[in-house]
Amino acid sequence: MSWTTRLAALLPATVDRDAGGTEPDPRFTFANERTFLAWSRTALALVVAGLAIVQLLPPFPGVPAGRHLLGMPLIALGAVLAVAAYAEWVRNQRALRRGEPMPVSIMPWILAATITGIAIIAAVVLLLSALR
Amino acid sequence: MTAPNPDQAGDDPEERDSGLARERTSLSWTRTAIAFAAVGGTVLKENLATGLIILVIAPVIWQLGRVSRRAIPGADGGPPAMAEVSATRLFFITVSIVGVALLCLILVILGRSAPGALR
After folding, report:
1. Which of A49, A81, A109, B71 is the most buried (most CB within 10 A)?
2. Does B34 touch chain A (CB under 8 A)?
3. Is A11 domain-assigned?
4. How far is residue B89 from each of residues A6, A10, B67, measured CA to CA in Å?
């Protein structure tokens, strides 16, 4: 399946058309919606954290691009998480409607892997800065 | 997945009153709106116009969380499916966050920073 087809499948009209199955228990629908909202707040927190790193931290001596190197991936991760959270909500809602097992979430993996990567970059930047 | 049996209410208050799930979801929408306002406030210090744009999204999101699907006419005249209402609202939030992230990236790349504000 191409990326454009995948993205088109996320549009609200397509979600409704492809819903299938029957309306699930409202409590499950609410729980799915709350999970999406929680991920959205996490995405916003990452965007603010990235912005704060670039705008508020003092420059790293000897590593002029250090703040951008740390802040910009966090902001980008915020945008990626927001889209992934919506795709996850669509998949979960579809599974709930059809009575299928809930799909495995890749979002905790994305978050953990990116934060680990940024932590490693931060350690390298600090080390380079301290050695100057 | 099996739906809970309403005739076998347990000790969990939510099993006895599904309205609590609606209330928790409503509070979650409010927290999300507050999060948008906080981001807007933070960006406001850096760039007034961008901050105001983000701040305007906060009340829209708060209002979206209060939309009842009974208030929206469906294709057959009755209320639309819950998934359709949710998909439209959640899609708006997703687009908003991606937009905010893009604005912040532009600010970070092109904007004047005040390095050392935490020094």
Report:
1. A81
2. no
3. no
4. 19, 13, 9
